[in-house]
Amino acid sequence: MPVNEELRVLKTLSYDATHYSLFVQAGSIGALTRPGHFAMLQAGDGLRPYLRRAFSIADVTTVAGVPALEFVVKVVGVGTAALAHFAEGTPLPVLGPLGVPFPIDDLGRDDRVALVAGGIGLAPLVLLSRVLAARGVTAELFYGGRNEKDVLKRADFERFLGAHRCAYATDDGSLGRKGLVTELLQRELSAGKTYKRLYACGPVPLFRALARIADEADLETSFALESEMACGFGVCLGCVVPARDGRFATVCKEGPCLPHTAIDWSRV
After folding, report:
1. CA distance 99 to 111
2. pTM of the model
């Protein structure tokens, strides 16, 4: 059951001019959060911007001993820019956790999974990495971006998963392999490596490519879809995606974590 509560900003950590992490008190939401959940944040006084903004809950952690929720944000408009300037102690209305999280309850210590992130799509995979590591599940990360600055939270991923299980790809070759992140995954699959499940988050072109790879490898998936949302709980129907059964699925309520086989990628 989602909770609507006012949480205070604990700190903001800037990575560069357009990327930052916002840490707020965990409140009641922290204990309810599972990897893949998201929350709706009020980014202003209710007039500009008028609607709340949806963000993946990147991590449930602590700041100076205080339980905290972390949101990894890219500045793309008025709301995301406003959140970057909230001072410590600022009260922030938060609704969450929302949506369907990643399926992980069936994983055991003998299982190996793949995590694929594209750009800001790293967000829901941070908490997933933390939880999988705590359970002893072997997880390998494939993370791609336009350049090194686009590949965030590397220290956290390497701490949870081990640096030897983290592979990177950038368009300009400034970090890791020059090329597409899907090439990293395809190389492992072509070498005979198998995974119980593929978890991913990123832009639609990445999902389309991963869906093709998953079909060829007969690989089970869970994709954390991204969409602009007005309500966060299936009322406004502003975040729908075409499903393979002919209807439209709501990302906020039926997702955001869905198997690739549920989506009609030819219409996305």
Report:
1. 25
2. 0.96
